[in-house]
Amino acid sequence: MNKKSIFRNLAIAVTGLGVATSAYCGTYVYISNIDDADITAYELTTGLTPHLTSVGRFPANKFVMPMTVSPDGKNLYASVRSKPFSLYMYQIDQTNGQLKWTGAIPLPDSMVYVSTDKTGKWLLATSFGGHNNSVNQIQANGYVNPVPAEAFMSGGKNPHAIVFDQTNKFVYVPQLGTDEIKIHAFNDAQLKPLSETSTSVSLQKQQGPRHIFISSDNKYAYVITEMTGEVIVFSRDIKTGSLTQIQAASSLPSDSKLVPGRPRPPTGSPEATAFDDSNMIFNAEIKLTPNGKFLYTSERTKSTLSGFEVNSQTGKVKYLFTIPTEEMPRGFNVDPSGQFLVATGQKSDKVSLYSINQVTGELTLIERVPGGKGANWVTFVKTK
């Protein structure tokens, strides 16, 4: 065989290897559905015609809500908030994004948020109604130890998220009911990694801090307030984890007629029946693009998404726009490339796919595809 033939065959072999490898890479979207008691899965294909292709629907249980994924993208965990309170565990097929149920373990309460630490060894959860936190160890095979390593009261009221900083040394727990953010030290090498003692930073009364997002450079924290619809920007002390507020920016358009919300009575109570929230602010989610250039929030009463530009030097945000989206958008998320946003609606049976303009941050609707009932949580996984 001459030298020219050898190089030609080598090129063919390398090309074939590239095709084979790319077949095992993909970006997948998982959405939990309260009413359908399942998780819908899609593959996000990009290129000239971006599209959400259905991968399947995978059984869970009623009120399956918050989800998290292991750092290696191989396991998905979902909190079921109906009795018996449980954590459902799934393996993610790296070739097609399908979920394989691997079991369920009890959770100490109705957990409103679940997170895995950066090492993939620990799963943390927090309960809105029970005002408590729990920590479970994750085994090497992805199965979660059913016996909590820790379970303790949050120290505040109505915690709504439990989020790690980028160093894995601090955990932030917004307390919606007491308008504060608890800051816990975390040491993944200890048998009880989450410190029960905490410091806290206070917000104004009735703001209702709900979700928090830490910037990729670890310098800033962004909080969405449920009752006033504000993005609260904090600078972070990298060494101590402490937060210092530097900005409060409204996520509502200037002509909004919504009024500040207030805590909702327990579901099923007489007060809940008479409670009229039709004109109250009801914000839900907050996300940053991976490059930190743009930030997005959702508001459920008017069913909108708002966009902000982020100043890379100061961390502060500038309001850009508000657009309509799926009805009651409790959950949305930005894909790992930062080029797309997927939004759901708790009162919608559709899922919206948007492109993100990389210069202006503008959201452009690409398509709406069939979804589940009671959609509320959106999680992305990029397989390798």
Mean pLDDT: 93
C-alpha Rg, in Å? 21 Å
Shape: globular
Structural class of the secondary structure composition? mainly beta
**What is the H-and-E element order?**
HEEEEEEEEEEEEEEEEEEEHEEEEEEEEE
Tally the beta strands.
28
Count of helical stretches: 2
Quaternary form: single chain
Strand order of the largest sheet: 3-2-1-28
**Percent range for β-strand residues:** over 45%
- Taking pLDDT < 50 over at least 5 consecutive residues as the criterion, the unreliable ranges are 1-23
Largest sheet: 4 strands, antiparallel
The rounded distance between the terminal residues' Cα atoms is 36 Å
Which percent range fits the helix content? under 10%
3D architecture notes:
The chain is mainly beta. The chain is 7% helix and 46% strand. The protein is built from two helices and 28 strands. The protein has helices at 3-22, 270-274, and strands at 26-33, 38-45, 51-59, 64-69, 75-80, 86-92, 99-106, 111-116, 122-127, 132-137, 150-153, 163-164, 170-175, 180-185, 199-202, 209-214, 220-225, 230-236, 243-250, 283-288, 294-299, 304-310, 317-324, 332-334, 340-344, 350-356, 363-370, 375-383. A four-stranded antiparallel β-sheet has the order 3-2-1-28, with no helix packed on it. Strand 4 (64-69) and strand 5 form a beta hairpin. The longest helix is centred in the N-terminal third of the chain and has 20 residues, at 3-22. The protein is globular. 45% of the residues are buried. Mean pLDDT is 93; it is low at 1-23.
